[in-house]
Amino acid sequence: MEKYQFEFKLLPGSDGKSNIFSITSITTEDNKVLAIPEGLQAVGHHKEIIKTSIYAKVKNSLKKKYQTRKVWITMTEELANIYNDGDGNLQFGDQYLEEMVEGNRAQKTETNTLEQLFEKFVEVTQENKQQSLKQIADKFIIEKFTS
Q1: Between the CA atoms of 108, 110, 115 and 120, what dihedral angle is there, to the nearest 10 degrees?
Q2: Residues 67-108: pLDDT tens digits?
């Protein structure tokens, strides 16, 4: 039987006070990550998942907003009919799920940005060191007061 890894996330409700349990993505056994559309992320849409014992454990383990859990769920016949179209394509709510490849790109972009900022910082500090002591001293010396 197939297994899919579901990512559960506790998101804030529209009022800001309540919490909504959501399924944000599904990962296949061959490490393909597929995103659930935002309108279908609330667990209320995933009625068969709610019936599993795994969901009860996940619900008990998520306490804080934005906390996540990834759990593997074996596909029963009912679950397979909901999340798989029979040809190996993942779907939910009559929509095919989109594969996520942005996570790696976002991490690389963030790393590149941090590296660029660090390089600029090093350049600026080196420029300050190259100033002569006379220039630095002139900035701190008060000129003679004459009236």
Answers
A1: 140
A2: 899 999 998 888 888 888 888 888 887 888 888 875 544 555
Distances (CA, A) of 73 to 29, 49, 68, 139: 11, 9, 16, 68
**In which region does residue 31 sit, left (phi positive, over 0), alpha (psi from -120 to 50) or beta (all else)?**
left
Q: How confident is the model over 33-66, as pLDDT tens digits? A: 999 988 888 899 899 998 989 999 998 998 888 8
Q: How far apart are CA 26 and CA 71, in angstroms?
A: 10
* Length of the chain (residues): 147
Phi, psi of 107 (to 5 degrees): -65, -40
CA-nearest of 96, 101, 81 to 36 is: 96
d(CA 70, CA 27): 9
Asked whether the CA dihedral 125, 129, 131, 137 is positive or negative, the reply is positive
